[in-house]
Design a protein that fits this description.
The protein has 191 residues and is an all-alpha fold. The chain is built from 8 helices and no strands. It folds into 2 domains: 1-107, Orthogonal Bundle (Rna Polymerase Sigma Factor, Chain: A); 113-186, Winged helix-like DNA-binding domain superfamily/Winged helix DNA-binding domain (Arc Repressor Mutant, subunit A, Orthogonal Bundle), CATH 1.10.10. Helix 2 packs across helix 4 (69-99). The N and C termini lie far apart (50 Å).
Length: 191
């Protein structure tokens, strides 16, 4: 089914399952990439995608079209991913307290976030990038990934993060600065 997102959203609001399916097919790859970058696990990313599209379907009548459908959907997916990660952290903390183990504050295991058809950084660089991404705040990590992996504009990222464009630019800047500093010893040359 062809048509702009606006046309498909309008048809989906009127009950067209084909229109909503077309929206899912159009946006699922980008939503999956975001979810995979945030959760680091394919099965978690698939759960996030499914939950995001379910929430979007339930709320499509309330979609005000102030932003694009894709931006709105990315915001929902980001929230679903963060909900899953917070839930997982609470469960791990509870398990650790039951077992008498104190878990470190940051338990992110970002692993390999990239899709199989995307090039991976080699060994040591990947470890440095993973470690630095794990130490970033959710805001910095998400802003960086949306900008430099997904290629979204500052305006789009601001809408997803529900932050001002200035706050979004600062989050991306801080993330890039941290990664550059972390990678500097591995590339051997100061700029």
């Amino acid at each position: 089914m062809n048509g702009s997102d606006a046309v498909l959203v309008d048809q989906a609001r009127k009950g067209s399952t084909e229109a909503y399916r077309a929206l899912v097919e159009r946006h699922a790859p980008a939503v999956f990439r975001l979810a995979f970058h945030l959760t680091s696990h394919r099965s978690d990313a698939e759960d996030v995608v499914q939950e995001a599209f379910l929430r979007a379907h339930r709320a499509i009548a309330n979609f005000e079209s102030r932003s694009g459908f894709g931006t709105w959907l990315h915001r929902i997916a980001k929230n679903c991913a963060f909900d899953l990660l917070r839930k997982r952290k609470r469960a791990k903390d509870l398990e650790d307290s039951i077992n008498g183990i104190h878990a470190p504050e940051s338990e992110w295991n970002l692993g390999r976030r990239w899709e199989p058809d995307r090039p991976l950084l080699d060994g040591e660089f990947q470890s440095v990038v993973d470690g630095e991404l794990a130490r970033m705040s959710e805001l910095e990590r998400t802003a960086f990934l949306l900008r430099h992996v997904e290629g979204q504009s500052t305006a789009e990222i601001s809408e997803v993060l529900e932050k001002s464009p200035e706050a979004t630019k600062q989050a991306v800047f801080r993330a890039v600065r941290r990664l550059r500093a972390a990678l500097r010893p591995h590339v051997g040359a100061e700029r």
